[in-house]
Design a protein that fits this description.
Blueprint: E1 6-7, E2 11-14, H1 21-27, H2 31-36, H3 45-62, E3 65-72, E4 78-85, E5 90-95, H4 104-118, E6 123-129, H5 133-141, E7 145-151, E8 163-170
Parallel strand pairs: 5-6
Antiparallel strand pairs: 1-2, 2-3, 3-4, 4-5, 6-8, 7-8
Length: about 200
């Protein structure tokens, strides 16, 4: 599939390119991104170039993973990344600290979910490592149902298994589960992480 651009009043989602290397490198220095994802650490510009060249382009071309850079409307500076993988119909995201608290990742997630539904996906899944209240708060606010705690699809940074919170949003609008969200995802502090760990970068 050729990359598509998605937009709202607050954000524009476009495919990341080599020109975004500096912004991606900067964003992946954030301790929360390092803690809740498996990005290389230390993260260098070479890592960002490899991400763009070996994952973003081939992901779109193979219909395996669709990746967008998150940008404020009217700005070309990348402040985060959101992506959707087709095998498990799951999404992941991270947002730079300077862009948190503005509703940008909420808009980005909503745009990607609605786009996936328009492409025929019956549902979209989400997961984060257990305890990542920022990511859980984003998913809960985006209409995902909490579907439980289990083994994460992506191992921990050391390669071993780790626990994940999971969620799902159905295209027909019906709840995917009647489970309650973890109480921590309702905490005020949970609104600021904006990092889902389901991506290696």
């Amino acid at each position: 599939m050729l990359p598509v651009t998605l937009s709202s009043d607050r954000v524009r989602l476009e495919v990341p390119t080599r020109s975004d290397t500096a912004a991606i490198t900067e964003g992946c220095q954030d301790p929360d991104v390092v803690r809740w994802t498996t990005v290389p650490t230390p993260y260098t510009e070479r890592n960002a170039q490899t991400f763009v060249d070996a994952l973003v382009g081939p992901g779109w071309a193979s219909d395996r993973e669709y990746t967008w850079g998150i940008r404020r409307t009217g700005s070309n500076w990348l402040v985060g990344v959101v992506s959707f993988r087709t095998e498990h119909r799951d999404l992941g995201f991270w947002l730079a600290p300077s862009a948190r608290g503005e509703g940008l990742v909420h808009d980005a997630v909503e745009l990607v979910v609605r786009w996936a539904f328009s492409q025929g996906a019956p549902d979209v899944s989400w997961e984060c490592y257990e305890g990542n209240v920022g990511s859980a708060a984003v998913a809960r606010a985006a209409g995902f149902s909490f579907t439980g705690t289990g083994t994460a699809r992506i191992p921990a940074r050391d390669g071993g298994p780790t626990s994940a919170w999971t969620g799902r949003r159905r295209a027909d609008g019906a709840p995917a589960s009647d489970l309650d969200w973890p109480a921590a995802s309702f905490a005020e502090g949970g609104q600021h992480g904006d990092v889902s760990p389901t991506r290696r970068r």
